[in-house]
Design a protein that fits this description.
The protein is an alpha/beta fold. It is 37% helix and 14% strand. It is elongated and about 110 Å long.
C-alpha cells in the first residue's frame, strides 16, 4: 500500500523519458537527450523542464504544439539532427519564455516565418541547406539571430545562380531583395486578373450593343411590313 501511495504522490511531470538523463543545473531542471538516436521529440518530457538538449539525434520534423506543455522551457538545443520540416505552430506555448533555440546543422531548406518571428529567443540557424527566399530574408531582418552564426547562413539554392553558395547576409548587402521578387510576381498576377475582368466587361458591352442593334433592326423591319406603313408610303 505504501508503494502504490508513493507512485500516486509522484507527479507525472517528474518522470524522465527513456534514454534521457534528467538533472538540475543551478536549481533548474534539465533534460539531456543528446546522441540517443531519437527520431522524434519525446512525448513524456517533464513539464517543469527549463533546459532541453535533443542535439545529435535523427529527428526529422518539429510538429505543431511539440513543446506546448513545457511552460518553463527557456533553452532548446535541436542542432545536428535531420530536421527538414518545422510546422507553423511548432513553438506555440513557449514563445514568450524561450531564450535560446539552436536549429543549426540540420536539413532545413525553408521555414514558415510565423514559427520564428513570434519568438523572443536567440536563434541559431547556421549550416542548413537554405533556399534563399523572402521568408528567410524576413527572419534575418526581424528575428533575434545569434550574431556569431549569421555569417554561416548560406544560400544552398536561390532564384538566381549567382547567389548560390554565398552567405545570405553578403547577398543582401549586395542589394538583393527576395521579397521584392515576390511583390513583382503578385503585382503581375493582379494586373493579369484586372485585365481579364476588363476584357470580359468590354466583351459584354460589345455583345449587348450588337444585340440591341439587331433588335432595333428587326423592330424597324417589322414596322415597315405593317399595312399602315405601306399605305403611308403610297
Amino acid at each position: 500500500q505504501a508503494f502504490f501511495c508513493l507512485l500516486l504522490c509522484i507527479p507525472w511531470g517528474s518522470s524522465c523519458p527513456p534514454s534521457c538523463q534528467c538533472t538540475e543545473r543551478a536549481g533548474a531542471k534539465a533534460v539531456l537527450c543528446s546522441s540517443q538516436h531519437l527520431e522524434e521529440i519525446p512525448k513524456d518530457i517533464p513539464r517543469d523542464v527549463v533546459f532541453l538538449k535533443l542535439d545529435a539525434n535523427s529527428i526529422t520534423r518539429i510538429p505543431s504544439n511539440a513543446f506546448r506543455h513545457l511552460s518553463h522551457l527557456e533553452e532548446i538545443d535541436l542542432s545536428r539532427n535531420a530536421i527538414e520540416k518545422i510546422d507553423r505552430a511548432a513553438f506555440t506555448g513557449v514563445a514568450a519564455g524561450l531564450r535560446s533555440l539552436d536549429l543549426s546543422g540540420n536539413r532545413i531548406r525553408s521555414i514558415p516565418k510565423e514559427a520564428l518571428l513570434a519568438l523572443n529567443a536567440k536563434l541559431r540557424l547556421a549550416n542548413n541547406p537554405w533556399h534563399c527566399e523572402c521568408a528567410l530574408q524576413e527572419v534575418l531582418w526581424e528575428a533575434r539571430l545569434d550574431l556569431d552564426s549569421v555569417r554561416d547562413i548560406t544560400c544552398h539554392t536561390a532564384p538566381r545562380e549567382e547567389y548560390v553558395g554565398k552567405p545570405l547576409l553578403q547577398v543582401l548587402d549586395a542589394g538583393a531583395n527576395f521579397c521584392s521578387v515576390r511583390q513583382r510576381t503578385t503585382d503581375v498576377a493582379v494586373f493579369v486578373t484586372m485585365f481579364g475582368w476588363f476584357a470580359m466587361v468590354v466583351a459584354y458591352v460589345v455583345c449587348y450593343a450588337r444585340h440591341n442593334r439587331e433588335d432595333s433592326c428587326r423592330h424597324r423591319d417589322y414596322l415597315r411590313s405593317l399595312p399602315s406603313a405601306q399605305a403611308c408610303a403610297e
